[in-house]
Amino acid sequence: MSDSPLPHKKNRKKVSFNKSVDVREFDSEEDVTCIYQITSREIKEFNGLTLLSHIVDNIVHDYFDMQNIKTVCDIERSLNRGFDMFVSANPETVDILNKDLIVNVENMVQCICDKISEAVLHNPNCSIYVINTGGGRGAQIQSIHIPHMRRLADLIARFVDSIE
User: Fold this and answer.
1) What is the pLDDT of residue 132?
2) Residue 12 Cα to chain centre, angstroms
3) What are the structural domain ranges in the chain?
C-alpha cells in the first residue's frame, strides 16, 4: 500500500470527452475508430426522468425484460401503465396521455434504433443507454437488439395509426 495520500478534491483533474472529432486529422482508420470509442462515451446522469423518458424506459423494459409486449394492444397497456406510474410518483404532472405524446414515444424509440445502428458502424461491440439522462433503469442496448427495437418501434407506429 502506498504512503502517498490521494490528491485533495480540488486538485483532481476532471476528464471530459469532446464529441466532435475531425476525421481528417488522423492517418488511419484505426486511429479514427479508437478516438471515436473514447469521444462517444456518454456519462449517465441521474437527475430525474421526464414523462417521455419514463414512458420510453417503461415500454423498453416491458418489451425486453418482462417480455409482455407482443401486440398493439400490449403497447396500449404498457403506455397506460407507464403514464400511471409517472403520475402517481409526480402528482404535480398536468400532462395527459395523448396522441402527440405517443408519437414522441415512437420518435424516441426510432431515434434509439438509429443511434445504435450508427454507433455499431464504428464499433460493433458498443452499447448505448436507452435513456441518456434523467435516471431510469439504466438499460443499455447493443447491436443484437436492433431488430427488436425496430419491431417495438413498428408496434408503436401501428398503435399510433390506430388512434383516431
Assistant:
1) 82
2) 30
3) 44-162
